[in-house]
Amino acid sequence: MERDSIFIHIPKTGGTTINTAINNSYWQTEVNFFYRHIQLKTKSSNAGDIFEPKNFQQYKKYDIFMMLRHPVDRVTSEYHFIKERKNYMELLKKQPRDFNDYIQNYQTHNGVVNFLKGRRFFDTRKASEDDLEDIIEAIKEIPIHVGIFEDFSTSLQYFSEVSNIKWKGEVEVKRMTFKRPKVEDLGDDLIKIILENNQLDLKLYEYCFNKFETVKKNLKSANIRFKKDKYMHVIPYAITMCLFEFCMSNKKYIKQNLIFFRELTTFLLKQKNITDGLIFTQTWNETFLNAISYYFPSSPFYEALKTDYNFENDALDETYKLAMKVDEFFKNSSVITNEYYKPMEFKGFLVVPLPQKNEQKKSFFDKLFKK
Q: Can you give the pTM of this predicted structure?
C-alpha cells in the first residue's frame, strides 16, 4: 500500500523547486496538509503540529521530508530575496537599513526552528533549546527524512528512495535570487554574527548533516539534471514588482515612475506577448533608456544612464548597471535633480523593436495575470 508524502518547505532551501517538480507544475502549489510552508494570509508556518511530541504517532503513517541549508547561506539568501517584499519586511518591529542590521535583529534569528514550530515569519517569540529538542525528536521518532541543500541532487535521490516520489530526468530550478553576495564574500565578521545569532539553526543543521552523511553512503547514484536559468524567473518577478526593485536603492524614483514601469511590463507581456525572460529584460532596459531620451533629451540624466550601457552584455547585469547609474545621479548634490523625478508617461511607441526569435505564447501569461 502506497503511503502519502508530506513535504515541509523551509524558506530558502530550494523548496519551490522540489514542490513544482513533485507536482509537475510551473509554480508552487497551495499550502495544505501535504505541503507545509508559509500561509500567505497569516505569514505563519503550518508545520508546527508535526513537531509536537503528542502528534508523533499519528504522523508515522506518512513519508515526511524536508531540506536544510547552512544558516549563513540561508540567511544571506533570505535577506536578498525578502528585502524588497514589504508585506514581510513590515513584520519587523525595527526596519533594517542593510544586511548588517537585518542579521542583528532578533526577529530574524533561528528562523528555521521558529518555522518548524509553526510560528509566524519574523515572530517576536524567540526559539528555545526545548524547541530544538522537539524538532530533533520528531526527526528521530516519526521519522522525518532530511536532505541537505548543498548536496541537492543526492538529497532528491534520498527522498525518492524513502517515498513514492519519482523525479523527472530534468528538474527546473525555481526562485533564483538575481543579485546576492557569495558566502565567501561576506567576510569573517558578518559570518560570525550570523552563526552567533542562529546557534539553534546551526545545531539542527549539523545534526542533520551528520545524519545525512551516513545515509547517503547507501544511496544509489543520483541521475538528475537541473535546468538553471535566471531568466526563467524574470517575468514572474516583474509581474509582482518593478524590475528595478532588486537593485535600485532610490525607492523614491521607483515610486514616482511606478505607473510607467507597470504599464511597460503589462505592454510587453500582453501586447507584445513576450514569453522569454531574456528578451523581456533586454526590451525593458532599452525601452526605459528610450523613454529617458524622449522625456529628457540631451540631458545630464540621459547622458549618465547611456554611458557604459552595453547592448551586448548580460541583460540583468545591465539592469543592475542602470539602477546604479540612477542611484549615483540622484546622490550627486552638484546636479539639480528634482526635475528628473517628474513621472514619465508610458507610450507604446517608446518600446524598442523586439528580437525576431521571440515566439508568442499568450495563454501562459493570461493565466499569470488572472492570479
A: 0.80
